[in-house]
Amino acid sequence: MKDIVFCSNNCFVLYSAAVQAKNSENKESVLTLPQSPMKERPPKAFHQYSNNISTLDVHCLPQLQEKVSPPSSPPIMFPPAFEAAKVEAKPDELKVTVKLKPRLKAIHSSLEDCRPPSKKWKGMKWKKWSIQIVIPKGSFKPPCEEEIDEFLKKLGTTLKPDPVPKDYRKCCFCHEEGDGLTDGPARLLNLDLDLWVHLNCALWSTEVYETQAGALINVELALRRGLQMKCMFCHKMGATSGCHRLRCTNIYHFTCAIKAQCMFFKDKTMLCPMHKPKGTHEQELSYFAVFRRVYVQRDEVRQIASIVQRGERDHTFRVGSLIFHAVGQLLPQQMQAFHSSKALFPVGYEASRLYWSMRYANRRCRYLCSIEEKDGLPLFVIKVVEQGHEDLILTDTTPK
Fold first, then answer.
1. Residue 359 is part of which domain span?
2. pTM exceeds cut of 0.70
């Protein structure tokens, strides 16, 4: 083996072919370590080296000034080659795997692929919001008013007054309870003590007519005749609306005449289905709402006298918002002090009225009015009955 020594400015470089061969043998041993755990001695091989001095590039190194070298550090010991291979072959203890799902792109046609990419502004992100409206198949039944009221009652979003008690008043003609529809029997009118009639039931009776002031005349006469007449539609007593055709005996209740499709005219006449003209008529009346002031003409003096004569009343007499409970009485020795030029003040009189509250602007309460005796003079007492508060009693010597 030949060694080549180059000398340049007191620097020696020794190139040995034997060292090169030794390094190559070490590399081969490192590469074969993972296959065999034991270190095998490499076999002997013949190597040929060609040393070409002319191809070596020799540079002249500059002379450096001598410096005080720091104290020498202890030599660093490197592990042998096979130990380094073992360290490299050690499996990783922690592994983090990140999977990125590819973004789905719907390919509809080749034209969409040629579109230029949309602009992406710096520092902003675009989001797409998609709305899907699902309409169920089949017929949809809208909720009725009762279901809506029940739902709003559960939510507690509405303010409703206390439920009104059922109206048990009956019409003397059609025998239906409570006020009727505006475009129908309409409201109830008081005929006598605890006797009520629907406005249109009385107005469309044959004997009844209306004055210019709005009073209905002969209502009692029509009621007496209706007690003996049977309706052609429902076969019940109380029918007073007859057909205007001569010699026609068909007679109906007002509500039954509407159900039987009778024809009403503006001159307050009616024709039954057998005699009504075919098609429409110029004078035909199709709307029965009455918004004008209409009342039953009656003898109020006789009606009040009947109230006083009854010792124990089982009926309630009401005029507007005033409910009459008891009329009271006056003894001969009280006549001088318990009356005025316009009114009487009987002891024991009692009535109640529904009127606006003194505490709340949008509420009504009950005022119970009565007359008592104190020191030989009348004492007027008003008892305010309001829910959520104690009863308030107000007294004075005059009704004002």
1. 316-396
2. no
